[in-house]
Amino acid sequence: MSVPHCHRLGCRVYFLCVSLALAGLCSAADNELDRFPIVHGEPLCVPIRLNEQKGRFILYSLFNVTVVDEAYRDHLGPVVPTPALTANRLLGMKLPVHRGPHISIGTNIPGIETPNEVVACMSMTPWQERFGVPVDGLIAFDRLAALVVRVHVDAGYVAFLKTPKESVAKKAIIVKEWFLPHVSIHVSDDGFRDAIISLGDCYSVLLDQDDFRRLLRRNKIVLRDSADGGELPEFRRRRVGVLDSIEVGPYKIQNVKVYEGAVTAIGLGFVRRFELDFDFPNRIVHFCPSQSYQEPERWDCSGIAIERKNNKTLVCTVIPSSVPGQSGVRVGDELTHVNDSRASELSLAKIRDLLSTSGSDVKLVFERNGVRQDIVIKLVRPDDPFPTDKNLPKILPIPD
Fold first, then answer.
1. Do the Cβ atoms of 186 and 9 come closer than 8 Å?
2. Are the beta carbons of 261 and 347 closer than 8 angstroms?
3. Residue 263 and residue 340: Cα distance in Å, rounded?
4. Chain centroid, CA 273 distance in Å
5. CA-closest candidate to residue 383, choices 301, 260, 316, 326
6. CB of 95 closer than 8 Å to CB of 42
7. d(CA 248, CA 265)
8. What are 4-41's pLDDT values in tens digits?
9. 74 closest CA partner among 113, 95, 101
10. What angle do CA 202, 205, 210 make, to 5 degrees?
11. How many other C-beta atoms lie within 10 A of the C-beta of residue 366?
12. CB of 107 closer than 8 Å to CB of 33
């Protein structure tokens, strides 16, 4: 993959080339104020205190108001109800909003506190089920970033800093729309788009439906018969394919996994290629390639997508031509074991990793109406041919 010479990107995005080798990356430990672990494949979460009540909040870009679980209603303290507010233009949800709670993030960050934060209450159950991790609320990560937010998926942490690492990174302007942080991306040879930077989602790149279809007609996108659409929430789950290239600042990434969606956005699957410093006070994001910069996209190799509901790991997508599809696995079946581990004891991110390792064998155990079925799958990428019928395991379908 090439890193082109710096140039001006439209009228909104600029970047500054710095001729320092990546090997010269220096540690920013001296100016870090707080650091929290993150897990690859899970949304970025940080500890929050809401009127001294502790919680685990996703740093989510799609809300312009802090959202807390309904269980927190009793911990909000005295509040002044305000008229219902639309949480964002994408979801269009009318939420009852309160003003007054004191919110702070982390443990060592002076000034990252909002004593009169606007808060809405709603059930976090859909998010908990979607990600398979405990979630107490959602907060737009730029709302609390009075300093700088560093996201380093490879190293496994999100940190708050005093200053960004300007000397070793390229710059791009953060565009603010709908209270959401955007950055301009160059999609194939089709021009620039403002893309939401969505750190609460694990997909790679989401393309607006019209753009996706136009690029598909121009053969810039090749569809993949993959269950990876299961990474998206159901209301946005559409087709998935490979786009020839996307440029962000001076960096050009080829063969990018893209989803057909309602908006254009880049998620953690794309962000993992970089170490990012979000300098919100100056509206600049600093890009620095990580060890994953040139890694190929991760694809589901099993033919199924999963979700978690009521502590059960359920199949939400089945590719008919895959081994599970031809063995009778259906949407709604419970995945009880992956190899010798109980699925309920594994995070969804861990299960996706196990199902994305092309060339390996994995044993899956499904259950429907108390009837168990064991399947051993030879994992293959969706752009490789699935095993021929004669190579499929001789397994009877799960009975009705």
1. yes
2. no
3. 40
4. 13
5. 301
6. no
7. 12
8. 333 333 333 333 232 223 333 334 444 677 888 887 67
9. 101
10. 135
11. 24
12. no
Instruction: State the virtual CA torsion across 282, 283, 286, 287 in degrees, nearest 10.
Output: -170
Are residues 139 and 57 in contact, defined by beta-carbon separation less than 8 angstroms?
A: yes
Q: Is 191 left (phi over 0), alpha (psi -120 to 50) or beta?
A: left
How far apart are alpha carbons 56 and 76 in whole angstroms? 16
| Number of residues written out for the chain | 400
Q: How far is the C-alpha of 351 from the C-alpha of 300, rounded, in Å? A: 10
| Spatial distance between the Cα atoms of 349 and 182, rounded to a whole number of angstroms | 26
Token representation of residue 263: 């908006």
Which of these, 42, 18, 16, lies nearest to 158 by C-alpha position?
42
Q: Both tokens of residue 272?
A: 């993992």
Tokens standing for 363?
A: 């044993």
User: Using H for helix, E for strand and C for coil, what is the string for the chain?
Assistant: CCCCCCCCECCCECCCCCCCCHHHCCCCHHHEEEEEECCCCCCCEEEEEECCEEEEEEECCCCCCEEEEHHHHHHCCCCEEEEEEECCCCCCCEEEEEECCCEEECCCCCCCEECCCEEEEECCHHHHHHHCCCCCEEECCCCCCCCEEEEECCCCEEEEECCCCHHHCEEEECEEECCEEEEEEEECCCCEEEEEECCCCCCCEEEEHHHHHHHHHCCCEEECCCCHHHHCCHHHCCCEEEEEEEEECCEEEEEEEEEEECCCEECHHHHCCEEEEEEHHHCEEEEEECCCCCCCCCCCCCCEEEEEECCEEEEEEECCCCHHHHCCCCCCCEEEEECCEEHHHCCHHHHHHHCCCCCCEEEEEEEECCEEEEEEEECCCCCCCCCCHHHCCCCCCCCC
> What average pLDDT does range 79-104 have in this prediction?
70
Cβ atoms of residues 186 and 195 within 8 Å: no
Place of tokens 């607006």: 208
161-193, pLDDT tens digit by residue? 888 876 566 877 777 654 567 888 999 888 888
> Is residue 164 packed enough to be buried (19+ CB in 10 Å), middle (13-18) or exposed (0-12)?
buried
pTM above 0.90, yes or no: no
Mean pLDDT calculated for residue range 350-355: 83
